[in-house]
Amino acid sequence: MSYHKQLTIGLFGFGVVGEGLYKVLQQTPSLSATIKKVCIKDPGKKRNAPDALFTTERDDLLNDEEINVIVEVINESEAAFEIVSTALRNGKAVVSASKKMIAEHLPEILALQQETGQSLLYEAAACASIPVIRNLEEYYDNDLLHGIKAIVNGSTNFILTKMFEDKLDFQQALLLAQQLGFAESDPKLDVEGYDAVNKWAFLLTHAYGIIEHPDNLLFTGIQNINAMDAKVAAEKNQQIKLVAQAQKLTNGKVASFVIPQFVPQDDHLAFVKNEYNGVVIESGFSDKQFFYGKGAGSFPTASAVLSDLSALRYDYKYEY
Ligand code: HSE
Q1: How confident is the model at residue 227 (pLDDT cuts 50, 70, 90)?
Q2: 157 CA: nearest ligand 1 atom
């Protein structure tokens, strides 16, 4: 296949991310990627795109031989897995942003990629605009990776920032995150740490080769953080952040958890405010590196999908 492969896309989902991708692709003609069809659930809804683009029939995309890439941004785990598996089996490459689906189905996803030889990329599924997966895949040697700590959920970071800096109460801050389109449709997924641990599960895979169902990882969210905690943190000149952390132990095993932590003001993660995410990687010889960027939202997430599409033009695959 040539490097400048033409990508003909079938897009599942036209919400915050799907519409963002549609707009971004209109502004990036040099990518040679066009959306041929978009599969949606509700045909009655008004959308800023030609009606002829839309269908409610998944097979209009999955059985179209001209479509060589399926982009799936529906974020409903089981339906997404069904789409992704069929697409791979039908000889199409896939780009997905469905973190829950990837976290819960990773062993099957690995097997499907092996069986079909097709690629499934999902940079948008963790930390949106930060290219964390491909960096973990390509740049770092697992053996030299001493530890990672990260803020991987934009909504909880947004809520904590608004509570501690703007003195909003929890519910006001959550409402704002929902209005801005960062929060999951069930905000419990953000607030109680489910979204963070889902992302963390497959980041651990790309960092250390660990394949663990998120239910088996230690995590808690920010549901029990209150104004008193904020006061205590402020008195110590610290902030409270929902931090995902993994540390290589001397016996070679990896300890990992997602938990709210006091973060001193001179810590890299203290710099991460609102819907931003941040990743601090500590590895042999390079010491610490800090990646920072928007972890949620329409264009930041679409930018990661765009980067995956670009990688597919040279048939990039994760090695795991
Ligand atoms: N609800 C998610 C978050 C969206 O707040 O991080 C991006 O994955």
Answers
A1: confident
A2: 5
| Nearest atom, ligand 1, residue 177 CA | 5
Token digits for 122? 């999902």
Tokens of 18: 């799907």
101, 128 Cβ separation under 8 angstroms: no
62: tokens are 């999955």
Q: Is 199 part of the annotated catalytic residue set?
A: yes
CA of 116 to the centre of ligand 1 (A): 30
Give pLDDT tens digits for 38-49: 999 999 999 999
CA of 111 to the centre of ligand 1 (A): 27
Ligand 1 pocket, CB under 6 A = 128, 153-155, 182-184, 190, 195, 295-296
Q: What gap in Å lies between CA 187 and CA 296, rounded to an integer?
A: 14
Name the residue of 75, 155, 162, 180 to mutate for ligand 1: max ligand atoms within 8 A of Cβ.
155
Q: Where are the beta strands (DSSP E) in the chain?
A: 7-12, 33-39, 54-55, 69-72, 93-96, 120-121, 145-151, 218-219, 238-248, 254-264, 276-283, 287-294
Atom of ligand 1 nearest to the CA of 99: 8
CA distance 122 to 137: 12
% the chain with pLDDT above 90: 91
| ipTM above threshold 0.95 | yes
Side chain identity at 104, as an amino acid letter?
Answer: E
Alpha carbon distance 127, 296 (integer Å): 7
